[in-house]
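re: that chain from earlier
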Amino acid sequence: MKNTIATALFTLLFLSPLNLHASDCVAKAGGVSVAVPTPGKVFTEVGGDKRDSFEYMVPSRNRLLCAFVPTDYLAQLKNPATGMDRYMVVEVSRRFENTDITAANFGQVIASMKQQIGDASQLNSTAQASKEEVVNKLKAVQNSKDIALDKTIPLGTFLQTTDTYGFLLLQPVSSGGTTVRTIGASILLRVRNRLIFAYVYGSDNESSLKWVQATAEEWSREILAANPAK
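^ sequence. v structure.
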């Protein structure tokens, strides 16, 4: 049973207590309350009325919990949410939202993920269905057929602890004859026995790469600290 859960969870790819602020997010994952602190002082959670702007990014197998943008960008946020240099989202698997994830389960998921990250062709094959779904959603909301997500390039693991695992990806996006590359940090967290996916995105340049990695590391620590085991 444990191996089955770990394998299935893997295919879904794609805190001492802190004082939470108004810009933070508190969501339910399988009936469990999960607190997600704002990642950095210049970001804010968009709130329930604007969270739909990010739904096109989320595969149907997952459920969006929180979305964060720079505070000074919130007023101009549109639906769909595009044109942002830096942003973050948090998701949970619909299928396994109510599943208790043990430390052993989480270790098996990490082992499988490492194997996948080491093989770019396998990674792209696994993620292809989700990428096609996201592209189709974006085409629908933007009324455009000229959008494509090219092959994802894995950049390796940058974080691993008992309850976290993070890796970096480079995702080229083509539209109108122009290709823009986004750097993303994908973080798996075991939070109060639930598997949570957190993502940090930035533009493709050296300073952004450093920012994505540093932000993801600090944010992971803050999320775990905000959700002490009970």
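The helical segments are 2-10, 103-117, 120-142, 206-225.
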